[in-house]
Amino acid sequence: MSQKNAIIWHITSGKEFPIQIWKHPRVNIELSKVPLDGLGAIDLLKADIHIFFLSVNLKEWNQVREFIRKFELHPYASLIIIYSDEAEKIKGVVPENGKIEVLEHPVHPRNLRLILDRTIQSEFYKLAANEIGNSCLTNIGFFEGVFELAQKEYKDATKANEALQAILEFESKVKKNNEEINKALERVNELKNKELLALHERLKVSEILDSMKTQELKDALDFKKATEQALNYSHIEEIQLDKILEAQDRLFAYTEKEIKDLIEENRNLKKRLGM
After folding, report:
1. What pLDDT is recorded for position 150?
2. Order of strands across the sheet that contains 27-35
3. Which of 13, 22, 171, 206 has the fewest CB atoms within 10 Å around its CB?
4. Per-residue pLDDT tens digits for 51-93
5. Is there a domain that residue 236 lies in?
6. Within this chain, do residues 96 and 126 fall inside the same structural domain, yes or no?
7. Residue 271 burial (CB < 10 Å; 0-12/13-18/19+)?
8. Structural domain of residue 189, as residue ranges?
9. Are residue 8 and residue 98 in the same domain, yes or no?
10. Are residues 43 and 129 in the same domain?
């Protein structure tokens, strides 16, 4: 089977793609950045697998929504991911069923890589199954040619019927084989959807844990600030107490001087009175 090509169309007003593009053993993965006003540059004939990754807010999503929704039923478009700070608001206007997945910013690079890699892998298996099916149909044409040759060379009707029966049996086997392939593809898609759902649940748990950690840090900072204020207040009280003690010392010194002056004045008065 030949090497396949996959394009991740990063539609954004200037944001960077959140992860590095990796090397796949069977699929050549390319990242193509498209501005919001340049959607006409998207060409689904350039590759075998197409994934749309939109780094947008709610207002920007409303601008491009009608254009992107056209790709929901397109056979070449595998997945549409909306990556936004306003994920909850966007989820309210996006149908639950379909190819559109809404991820809240920020997302762990490993989780995003897992979603993209599983999608590309699933699409690769679909392409492989289609090539096998087409090869079988080509072989049917070959055997039909053999049958025509047998008709010319053998006039015996019995032999011609046997050849026809063999071809019909071969066709039946091909149809059965295609049915098994389709069932396998449906199973792959089912598993992929379950994995995506489980991954979303893990992302929600991770976000809750991050929120709890943020609250704990905030509480710790508030406690630190309160402690600093208490220490600062204690320092102010110490300064005020020093000032009060100093004022009392001055008052005592002043009162002692007054008492000494009164005693001296009383002595002088006694001398003048001849006492």
Report:
1. 55
2. 27-35, 4-12, 49-55, 77-84, 100-104
3. 22
4. 999 999 999 999 999 999 888 888 889 999 999 999 999 998 8
5. no
6. no
7. exposed
8. 119-216
9. yes
10. no
